[in-house]
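Re: that chain you flagged

S.,

Sorry for the slow reply, it's been a week of failed gels. I finally had a moment to sit down with the sequence you sent. For the record, here it is as I used it:
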Amino acid sequence: MKLGFVSSILADWDFKGTIDVASELGFSCVELACWPQGKAERRYGGVSHIDTEGLTKERAAEILDYCRQKNVSLSSLAYYPNTMDGDAAKREKAIEHLYSVIEASSSLSVGMVTTFVGRDSQKPVEANLELFAKIWPPIVKFAKERNVKIAIENCPMLFGIDQWPGGQNLFTSPVLWREMFKIIPDENFGINFDPSHFVWQQMDYIRPIYEFRDRLLHVHFKDIKLLRDKLAECGVLAYPLAFMLPKIPGLGDVDWSKFVSALTDIGYDGAACIEVEDRSFEGSRDMIVKSLVQSKRYLEQFVV
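Prediction finished late last night. Pasting the structure tokens below so you have them in one place:
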């Protein structure tokens, strides 16, 4: 496995600064955030370490050269919008930029884009599957023609009132994965698996590794701490942030020994990127770097 991190946590660093941090800390790769230039639309969303819409051949060459100099590869170009938003204008804007990220991933020979499928939060699952069947086959075909894989994270994007009631990403469970893989059987369409989201949904995060081994394209290392006293009071129908907290690996409820063991069982040798969303480590630039240092130190007992 190639141990890296998601660059969104380094929002105040530019591209070179981000790669420098990865190199100095001994990471193999970075999942590089590539949102549209401009204001962030949500927490951790809006970070842009590469302007994919303005990417020229010269700029692509500079990026690749700097990565080679620092011995850091790009595991993926990351953009996590809602491509199935109920607002048609927002939907089209998200899809348009996603195409530019796919093009950039091809131009940079990264060959991977990590993203969400999105969801119309006001419609039921059945209607969203129909919408998925219309929107996503052309995107996956476009990526396939450019030798780019699309890895969808299993985050429900349901945390508070802004995403209520259905969340903003349909790709949330093995039950739905099976349906979506029937609709899009292409091998370049698969999973960016984050076990933390299954923890707070009280789901099995080990068994899917074996069933979907051929669809596992990318992995996130993020932890979650269930606040069981809160859960006992508010129940699973409450806003999820009422009963859980994102943490760095080792400080939550994911059993990393079992998780990495399962990955080694299936021979997974792709990227595993630490995703820091732990507010305890966001007070300063030094604390952000420390979150990566501590996460890497902890995970290296399992990933070598």
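What I noticed first: Residues 2-299 form a domain with the TIM Barrel fold (CATH 3.20.20.150).

Talk soon,
D.
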